[in-house]
Design goal:
The chain is mostly helical and 299 residues long. It contains 12 helices and 2 strands.
């Protein structure tokens, strides 16, 4: 009942993410169509293909697939490098997130049904997709302006590195999205009886804010896999992997903390928690990037 009353939060997340992302995709698609048509064709084509595949597997509703298309296209446009190869973009970590979410959700499906915690057959909704992937698109927008204080740090003393280092924030958000889903789904099946993150008291599987050792480890591995996929695809420095992976793990624990407090009290719904958790992952990555000395930045 509480989740139903808080549906306005899901709509707010969608309203916050989708118009900006969709407008950005339209503007960038036009720019690339004029300056380098293959970039626009490959980006829009592969993003659409991914959306259709997700829809075919009933992993998302039509509106969710359309939202995923827009976010994937935005992320791919934001990570274009030359010589251009479409797989050398954010498509790789987005695929990693999608595959990890799909297989972890299907793992132990029968047991989850018996426990009453299995995901609905129609798949994820548009607000769920925006909550999990929207922050990555927003913070990775290539033509956005960095804060003045951040632009004066060592990270921006090498102009060629700046766009990819900024993508660390988006990659951290993607890593958290995968970590959260995998941790929850694996923990419910293999983690045994979980404990509340705030009190360590044993609770029922599926309880907001509950964690298990197996679930947490699985989530950390998922974050590392997404961070590795993004770093390899973009030929990033090892710092990109470390920072984005650490951000993903931080966001995983922040998600559990929000679940144990604000969500259990009925102040936040799951979409709001997921959105804030991915944002916390990006913020933690930003803090790490600003604090690291320059010798850890340049290959």
């Amino acid at each position: 009942m509480t989740q139903i009353k808080l549906l306005w939060q899901s709509k707010l997340v969608l309203l916050f993410v989708l118009p900006f992302v969709a407008a950005g995709v339209v503007l960038q698609a036009h720019w690339w169509a004029v300056n380098s048509p293959p970039v626009g064709i490959w980006t829009l084509g592969l993003s659409l293909l991914l959306g259709l595949v997700v829809l075919q597997f009933r992993a998302a509703t039509p509106a969710a697939a359309a939202t995923g298309f827009a976010i994937t296209a935005s992320l791919m446009f934001s990570t274009v490098v030359f010589p251009y190869q479409p797989w050398r973009s954010a498509l790789a970590p987005v695929l990693a997130v999608s595959l990890l979410a799909h297989f972890s959700t299907r793992l132990g499906w029968g047991k989850k049904q018996r426990m009453g915690i299995a995901e609905e057959r129609h798949g994820r909704t548009a607000s769920q997709v925006a909550a999990n992937l929207g922050v990555a698109a927003l913070v990775s927008y290539r033509y956005g302006l960095a804060p003045p204080w951040f632009a004066n740090t060592g990270w921006f003393s090498h102009a060629g590195l700046a766009p990819m280092l900024l993508f660390c924030l988006g990659l951290a958000a993607l890593a958290e999205a995968a970590a959260d889903t995998v941790s929850s789904e694996i923990g419910q099946v293999l983690g045994g009886r979980p404990r509340m993150i705030t009190t360590l008291a044993e609770v029922e599987p599926g309880t907001d804010g509950a964690i298990s050792l197996a679930g947490t480890l699985a989530g950390a591995v998922a974050a590392a896999m997404v961070a590795a996929a993004g770093t390899l695809a973009l030929s990033g420095h090892r710092t990109m992997f470390a920072v984005s992976g650490a951000g993903g793990v931080f966001g995983l624990f922040f998600d559990s903390l929000l679940g144990a407090t604000l969500e259990r009290r009925g102040w936040l719904n799951n979409d709001a928690v997921n959105f804030l958790s991915t944002a916390s992952a990006a913020a933690f990555a930003l803090a790490l990037m600003a604090a690291l000395p320059q010798r850890f930045i340049v290959p």
